[in-house]
Design a protein that fits this description.
The protein is an alpha/beta fold. Helices cover about 40% and strands about 25% of the residues. The protein contains 15 helices and 22 strands. The strands form 6 sheets. A 7-stranded mixed beta sheet has the order 15-16-17-14-13-19-20, sandwiched between helices. It has a 5-stranded parallel beta sheet with strand order 10-9-8-11-12, sandwiched between helices.
Length: about 475
């Protein structure tokens, strides 16, 4: 079993306590261990970040860009090693892990380019011989809390823009999947990131939560995870001047209209629903089908699901990986049991994969006979489970999409341009797709949901600068 160190103050350190990391394809033997930091270690990480920020905010944007470009090169050079660890600790297929690794490098390269641009606007001034402009400045030390489902790309999505803008970070990877985040930190460290600019806190949340969330030097927190945890953080920040960026739950829907290309729609829905075993915030978990094509579409959908190959992510033949932990597997199975009790019909799947008792496998599942009152229609399952409803027309389909507390992503499949644009206007979601998957939003595209799916601050693209920078207005009188 490998023993890894964590990055704090520019040094790789360890403690006397450890956290074991397990492979969800076979949880019997730990594959690695990482330090279990204490509350005092967390406070020291903030000490380092405070000093790192003081220097990094004055560092040339061109030097920041150089560090990012080199870190991206190192990630691409190490892609096989990193992807293998993503698969080993998370369970996703090696193809998915490789894509995630390369996308992490994309984030670094994109923000390296953006770092070279000036963040600001030239404004007219009513006073003679005055020039006024705005400039964006880093806000300070930002706490980054990332989830287990995308253990490399989510840290990249969060850390790249905030570091490029001149902030420093304390980064808490998920306890279940710390190896991927440590790879990202090592690439930045090896590329020459100054000491203290990035500090990685590996530890058990219950033991370090107070030190992690209550440090007075925190200027912002960016979090991806459940609504329960996100709302708890929000309440904790209620009387503090700390920015909060949350990417929370989703119950994403795909609509199949009667004029859709049904075979293509079935393939896209299955890809969006069962990639990463449904453990994506943008995964399609509801499909709404117009009545006149329901039977034909369901036959195509079930056939596509039946063609999936369940197995360990390290097997090239696998197209449906295990869930990320025994806890997540058991949670999904409990949701399936409740759905059946409430009247849903299992068209395919619906149970654990008993051929691999030591892994976290759940068969890909399609549920029919689902009503709006059922929990499986309203609550996030976060697993390989797709709930199907039939509706009469376009208006009913849009109503079904919007009848949700969430608003992250939605898709429509249609050949009708009017229906496509109406759907884009009327769907209450931050991401809308037409004739493609609810998943797969690139690094330069603003990302984030409405309602209970997120907060006012978007991720990705230039839009993320609203979270990680503050605006200063400067007026210059150049007359006598």
């Amino acid at each position: 079993m490998r023993t890894l160190e964590t990055l704090s103050g520019g040094e790789w350190t360890r403690t006397g306590e450890w956290i074991d990391v397990h492979d969800p394809a076979d949880v019997r033997t730990p594959l690695a261990r990482v330090p279990a930091l204490s509350a005092k270690d967390v406070t020291r990480a903030y000490d380092h970040a405070e000093r790192g920020f003081a220097a990094w905010k004055r560092t040339s944007p061109f030097e920041r860009a150089r560090v990012f470009t080199e870190a991206a090169r190192l990630i691409r050079e190490r892609v096989e090693e990193i992807a293998a660890d993503v698969t080993a600790e998370n369970g996703k297929t090696l193809a998915e892990a490789t894509g995630e690794t390369l996308k992490a490098a994309d984030f670094l390269e994109y923000y390296a380019g953006l770092a070279r641009q000036g963040y600001g606007t030239l404004l007219h001034d009513a006073r003679p011989q005055h020039r006024t402009h705005t400039q964006r400045e880093p806000i300070g030390v930002i706490l980054v809390i990332s989830p287990w489902n995308d253990p490399l790309i989510t840290p990249a999505r969060k850390l790249a823009p905030l570091l490029a803008a001149g902030n420093a970070a304390v980064f808490k990877p998920a306890t279940e999947t710390p190896l991927s985040g440590l790879h990202f930190a090592r690439a930045l460290h090896d590329a020459g990131l100054p000491a203290g600019v990035l500090n990685v806190v590996t530890g058990r949340t219950a033991e370090i939560e107070e030190a992690l969330l209550d440090d007075p030097r925190i200027a912002g927190i960016t979090f991806t995870g459940s609504n329960a945890v996100g709302n708890r953080i929000r309440r904790r920040l209620a009387d503090r001047n700390v920015r909060f960026q949350g990417e929370l739950g989703g119950k994403n829907a795909s609509v199949v209209l009667r004029d859709a290309a049904l075979p293509a729609a079935a393939k896209a829905v299955v890809a969006a629903s069962f990639g990463q075993a449904g453990q994506r915030c943008t995964a399609t978990s509801r499909v709404i089908v117009e009545r006149s094509v329901y039977d034909e579409f369901i036959a195509l959908l079930v056939a596509e699901v039946a063609a999936l190959t369940v197995g360990p992510g390290s097997d090239p033949a696998t197209t449906l990986c295990p869930l990320s932990s025994p806890k997540q597997r058991d949670s999904v199975l409990a949701d399936l049991g409740r759905a059946v009790e409430q009247g849903a019909t299992v068209l395919t799947g619906g149970r654990a994969d008993t051929e691999r008792p030591h892994g976290c496998y759940v068969q890909p599942t399609v549920l029919a006979g689902v009503t709006p009152e059922m929990a499986v229609w309203r609550e996030e399952v976060f697993g390989p489970v797709l709930a199907v409803r039939v509706v009469g027309d376009f208006d009913a389909a849009v109503d079904a999409v919007n009848d949700s507390a969430f608003g992250l992503a939605a898709a429509v499949f249609t050949r009708d341009l009017t229906a496509a644009y109406r759907f884009a206007d009327e769907a209450e979601c931050g991401q809308v797709a037409v004739n493609t998957t609810t998943t797969g939003w690139d690094v330069h595209l603003p990302f984030g949901g409405f309602h209970d799916s997120g907060t006012g601050y978007k991720e990705q693209g230039e839009e993320v600068l609203r979270f990680s920078t503050r605006v200063k207005t400067v007026a210059v009188h150049f007359g006598a």
